[in-house]
Write a structure and sequence with these properties.
- Helix content is 50%, strand content 0%.
- With 224 residues, the chain is mainly α.
- Among the domains are: 63 residues; 88 residues, no CATH class.
- It is rod-shaped and about 85 Å long.
């Protein structure tokens, strides 16, 4: 029987119990450590950063140009209307206009008012002309009767109208209105016979008062 070599057994056991050591890769295969920080897409170079937070500081605020009280002026012949002026000043203050800037807008408002006034006057003059044409074409007042109608109406106006009434009719143009002409024409016809108005207190009167004569013309009564 062969004898075992104690030394060989010991070497084999030691080799089996040995734990393999982690092998270090060769120097040629080692990768260098990445020491650079990845770039952020939104990152900006330090030289492009704005100074501060970009917001105006208290010391940088511009003083308002709008005065505490506007001194407005208008051309001669015009005057400032209180309520409209207050509205204008409020708007001027919202836009922070100084006094000179606000006054530069006044002429524009004046021109607008003048244009509106001229348009209204033109419209009224056209209306007055239409009234006159209506009188000329009226069956009772116009046509062949037009001249007599005007003369009779003028006689009544001269007799009973005050100077203020005459001026009002001239300036307003209502003297051309068909119904005004009709009324004074009928009054003129009613007073054509002065005995109805200026008759003596004795006999020969019609027994009618001046008021009844003015408003009792046959054409003013309803048809029976």
């Amino acid at each position: 029987m062969a004898e075992q070599n104690p030394a060989a057994t010991t070497d084999t056991t030691a080799a089996a119990d040995a734990t393999p050591e982690t092998q270090t890769p060769p120097a040629g295969d080692a990768k260098p450590a990445n020491t650079e920080t990845p770039a952020t897409p939104d990152a900006k170079p330090e030289g492009d950063k704005p100074e501060g937070d970009g917001k105006p500081k208290d010391g940088d605020k511009t003083a308002p140009k709008a005065p505490e009280k506007y001194e407005l002026s208008v051309p001669e012949g015009f005057q400032l209307e209180p309520e409209t002026t207050a509205e204008f000043e409020q708007i001027a203050r919202e836009f922070d206009l100084d006094n000179d800037q606000a006054n530069k807008l006044i002429p524009l408002g004046v021109k607008l008012a003048q244009r509106i006034e001229a348009k209204q006057a033109e419209t009224h003059q056209s209306q007055v002309a239409q009234w006159a044409d209506a009188v000329r074409n009226d069956k009772e007042l116009g046509g062949a009767n037009f001249d007599a109608t005007v003369a009779t109406a003028k006689k009544a106006l001269d007799r009973f109208g005050t100077p203020e009434l005459k001026q009002l009719m001239d300036t307003s143009g209502f003297g051309n209105h068909p119904e005004i002409v009709r009324a004074f024409h009928r009054i003129g016809q009613a007073i054509a016979d002065d005995t109805f108005v200026n008759a003596p207190s004795g006999g020969g009167t019609s027994g009618k008062s001046p008021a009844s004569v003015l408003f009792d013309h046959p054409t003013s009564q309803p048809q029976r």
